[in-house]
Input
Amino acid sequence: MVKEIIISGFGGQGVLSMGKILAYSGLMEDKEVSWFPSYGPEQRGGTANVTVILSDERISSPIVNHFDIVIALNQPSLVKFENTVKPGGILIYDPSGIVHLPERKDISIYTVAATDEASSLRNSKLMNMIVLGGLLKVVPIVKLENVMKGLKKSLPERHHHLLPGNEKAITRGMEIIQPLG
Amino acid sequence: MTEFQDIVLMKGNEAIAYAAIRIGVDGYFGYPITPQSEIMETLMNEAPWTTTGMVVLQAESEIAAINMVYGGAACGKAVMTSSSSPGISLKQEGISYLAGAELPCLIVNVMRGGPGLGTIQPSQSDYFQAVKGGGHGDYRLITLAPASVQEMADFVDLGLQLAFKYNNPAMILADGVIGQMMEKVKLPAYRRRRTEAEIREQCPWATLGKPATRKPNIITSLELDSVIMEQNNLRFQAKYAEITKTEVRYETIDAEDADYILVAFGAMARICQKAKDLAREQGIKVGIFRPITLWPFPSTAIDSFSAQVKGFLTVEMNAGQMVEDVRLAVNGKVPVEYYGRLGGVVPTPQEVYNALVAKFNLPN
Output
């Protein structure tokens, strides 16, 4: 098994953290993992993205052209990465602020209204966890218990009281993700 | 100090910091610059001065930092600095002095695109600077090129071991990809810092205070008598010849039956592995040759494939630097081509594959 994933959105949406939690979760399942961020100046207000690879075998390149799963959390990311989904692959996006819908017919497309859901939970910081929940519903690449273990590991102890809220957000994401159309 | 399980997930830059603490480095002197600032950030967070006694100091500039390294090294301490390309340029005078004074130390360069201030994105365009000189004078820098976070951790120890074995500066020449990416790493075991008595014994040349029983130790790169300076240079050259004979390191992947070999170092070697897989899927027998020591360069090992392959493709994140050394090694026996991207752009596996097909007119 190898899953090549890119998560892309605005700086501040928690794109890099979401990738980190996914990578930690993979580590908990004894998978090979790589996490490569865009670390450029574009992170200030522009787009940020992170490539996460989870694999049963040693990972060669941390940088790839095409992805099994693309998660686009804003319009520029959707435009930039729609064509990088492998045929038969998966595109997940947050419909908030999306004007130009994806056009590919050879891939599975899902929407997860994470931005809206996070504001109804009154915590915009949970947005990325809702997306992660959606992803795990569509592709159960890692078990929820391992995500929680990974989350625990990547969060400093002073933030551990936030874990139940995060778990709830992941579960909510699993409930609200839906196929496009 | 943070205690870890055996296997942890971290960035290459962080791995360098944790490895330095664990293997008993005495001092780190640096000045922040992207994409390697996590090295000093991690050291500052871990505060090893409260545990192992390791000094971590943010100097007022890169030049100050390398000269602090000179001072620490002259006392026989295991000391290091790190920076990225523009900052490494500033350190070149100090590096030449360290080489001339035959002092061991470790310098980490997490390369970004140049020239000048350039960009902060990954690059490998300081190859020439690291292996052909950089500073003035006939000196050589032991240069290690990590291709994984694991090697970032491992080469801190290896670099310092080699530096002390030969009384010569060593460099980890990494790139922004390896510095910024996270993957699994097994950190080295804890080893306490050497005591002053141990340093006195292992480094009798160190300037740790002169007992009445011996003459003063003098550490300098200056020698005004050119005849003596020539002798010094000949001693350096003999040392470099010994390093070239003994310390070459490289890795090959699927090279045994290869018709074409991709030669690449650092992150580029990882990307080339994926390109190799793409080629093998098309029935093109491609292998990888990855120099681990860029100096000493694995010339003989590369040339040993000249009789077997139809050609080499050197892939670099620069305008073609290492390709010159590959061409010298192969000496015209088979074509040695180059492919690369510049200024911080990282070639993708598909681009490398396309370049291979185009350069050697292969059926696509």
Remarks:
- The CA atoms of residues 83 and 152 of chain A lie 35 Å apart.
- The longest helix of chain A spans residues 15-28.
- Helices of chain A lie at 15-28, 75-81, 114-120, 127-138, 144-154, 163-176.
- Chain A has a mean pLDDT of 93.
